[in-house]
Amino acid sequence: MEAQFITKDAGLTFWLARPQDFDEVMAISNGIYGGKDYLPHRYHTWMTEPGRVVIIARRSGKLVALDSGLVVDGGQTVVMEGLRVCMSERGHGVAGVIQQVTDSYVKQVYPSVNTKRLTRGDNPPPEKLSKFTVLAQRAILTLCGEAESFKGFVLGLRAKLDTMEKLNDNKNCLVAVKDSHQLKALLLDPDLSSRLQLPGGAIIQDWQPLKPIESNLEILERRNLTWLANCASDKPTFMSFHTPAYPIPFNGGSLRFNIDMFGANLSLARKALIAHLEQETGEFHKCVLVNIYMPQTIWEGMREFCEGHEGVKQCRNYWSQLFLEQEIP
Ligand SMILES: CC(C)(COP(=O)(O)OP(=O)(O)OC[C@H]1O[C@@H](n2cnc3c(N)ncnc32)[C@H](O)[C@@H]1OP(=O)(O)O)[C@@H](O)C(=O)NCCC(=O)NCCS
């Protein structure tokens, strides 16, 4: 495939990324997110994903940076993902330049886009965030262990839960959201956002924020998610899903398993954790990193629930996901 030139700026040339740029992209990605980078797994899907723009920067022919955006929310929003700059070019504003190029290219190809959204796992000082509106912040609990430890871990969680539930006589239960018809009814309910206190009014799927609107259902269906919601009424106050575990470079090759939770009910969150793990542990191999994204108010309770197992441990202190928005003029 011939490279498609976009523009040049600050001594760099900008191009649309192609499948054959993969090795060069990986060469600048070494060590990103401490080895928990999703891009090695997603790069080739990104090349053909509808609404996706992936831009690379080259200096004297050498690939030095990448940025990407996915147009969502019926063409109104671009969700930025994947930003990275090679080690030797960092700290000189290259990230700023490639972001500007990506913004204007997206605007040129998709003129209806007027908002840019992104999520970040670092903790930038307020002055770095002045150009953004902070829409929400979610807590993340990270666990890790060898695949074979997870069965025992889940059995232990179930035993703890049984004891707790007997004490509290808790009748809250969860059901699977099985088909696209049920999912549509759940997500397009106009009260959903307030009932579940959706972060910034969005469903954040493995760092990707999407408004619960019809045009995004197709994007969510592409992700092959497994959904749960509480069965107390037809107006659930808790919802969760997991993304199928995928390979990451960590520790010479590991799996990353993401569970996103919405609604601040600790009892349901505990049950959801067990249910999601039970459904996926059969797929686990090597070392597995589990990220559980949730409202901040239930993080401590979830941490306590998960502690005390020899093989599966909390492997990162409290950290959070920032959800940011910026207008694109
Ligand atoms: C984060 C990273 C891309 C910054 O690259 P850089 O060229 O050194 O960036 P600079 O320090 O020169 O800052 C340039 C701009 O990028 C912005 N920036 C820095 N980190 C950012 C981030 N995580 N998300 C969005 N923008 C970011 C800065 O705010 C600055 O914007 P401004 O010029 O409009 O003020 C680079 O350190 C990197 O590749 N890190 C590893 C991958 C990573 O953590 N990516 C973040 C994805 S959320």
Automatic annotation (TrEMBL):
Residues 175-294 form the Histidine N-acetyltransferase C-terminal domain. InterPro entries: Acyl_CoA_acyltransferase (IPR016181), Hisat_C (IPR056483). SUPFAM superfamilies: Acyl-CoA N-acyltransferases (Nat). Pfam families: Hisat_C. This is Histidine N-acetyltransferase C-terminal domain-containing protein.
